[in-house]
């Protein structure tokens, strides 16, 4: 006999004790594979759509090259970054996040910024966005967040009630919401927006010494954005506007380019910095960790076939090369599993053997068979296991991930820093008076359809805590009063 006590449960009916924080080794992690609720939640989420991508379904791509312009080999042993002037072929896929494959390019949405470097040591992917932060900071919340961005199960319409209810109950989203609703929420073109790795990663040099690093791609065309009214008009007249604009720019020899710079933080600073450096809802101050130029990315060739190259391209933030490793960022830790799992479902177990994803160096492992295996599948070799004593492929301890310390008790842990307002408020105050007015009007317009005043007031409190003027402006536009702050 079942009882309805309104407890959140797993698919096998067990109650969920913590749905906000994944299970980690100590408060900083890394994430534990024994968190079966996290794994099942992410794995199920990856299989909710057939066959287009669950997120980032609508995209455009191009080939190009990356050229090193500054020697940072004292920080990383990654071969493709080893010398000034070294060029590495690469492919990039730009995308909107929430919309379906046939949605408009000019909607207000973050843009995916996924880069695949075909290095001599294997492929390296930077899978980021055109914003330096994200809405959430733990992967266990990702399926819930994206559900709010998708369609209502009965009406099949977008659901602003769900969007703002989730955001108002997840104050860590405030920084990214402010960026999304600002002028930067609708780029004028894919060529005129920046890109970011967003997460913190670890670089390791030949001596085994490490640093924390963040990636910044700065457009050399200059940042340009679309007026919301123009974007709405384009959405109706030419929903493929960004895709078309990028294709013709490259076809006409107007090759877009980005300067790639990094912020570098000594490992020990992670324990004392004013923000948790692994919290993807926060940025590192460039006054504390200035941008250091690394190289330049140029796009100079369009795909020959959209499906074969853009649609079948697969990226994962866990696609590393020696000298680049993961950080304890909880959102990143979940993505290390989720992305390739999504590709295995959507494209197949052999997705990395497709021409667009295949590395330029030889793949030498014992993975065999699977759907659509189209190469020699290891041929007649009888050495399809490791360890072996017959001259087959063996592990190389020199390429192992550098050791790192973990501490604390295994369990679900929240981030220790809960100031979600300072950086969002700082961003608001950096805007001009006109930009702030447009931001307030955009947010008020997006919140107006929300049926519950309780949700509106809860969210207004977050804006007010970031900056009183910010909250008061939105409250006034919605004919509400800012709630009394506790």
TrEMBL record:
Residues 1-27 are annotated as: Disordered. Its EC number is 1.11.1.6. Keywords: Heme, Hydrogen peroxide, Iron, Metal-binding, Oxidoreductase, Peroxidase. It catalyses: 2 H2O2 = O2 + 2 H2O. Its cofactor is heme. SUPFAM superfamilies: Heme-dependent catalase-like. Residues 9-394 form the Catalase core domain. This is Catalase. It comes from the Bacteria. Pfam families: Catalase, Catalase-rel. GO terms for molecular function: catalase activity; heme binding; metal ion binding. Heme binds at residue 339. PROSITE patterns: CATALASE_1, CATALASE_2, CATALASE_3. It comes from Domibacillus mangrovi. PANTHER family: CATALASE (PTHR11465:SF9). The lineage of its organism: Bacteria, Bacillati, Bacillota, Bacilli, Bacillales.
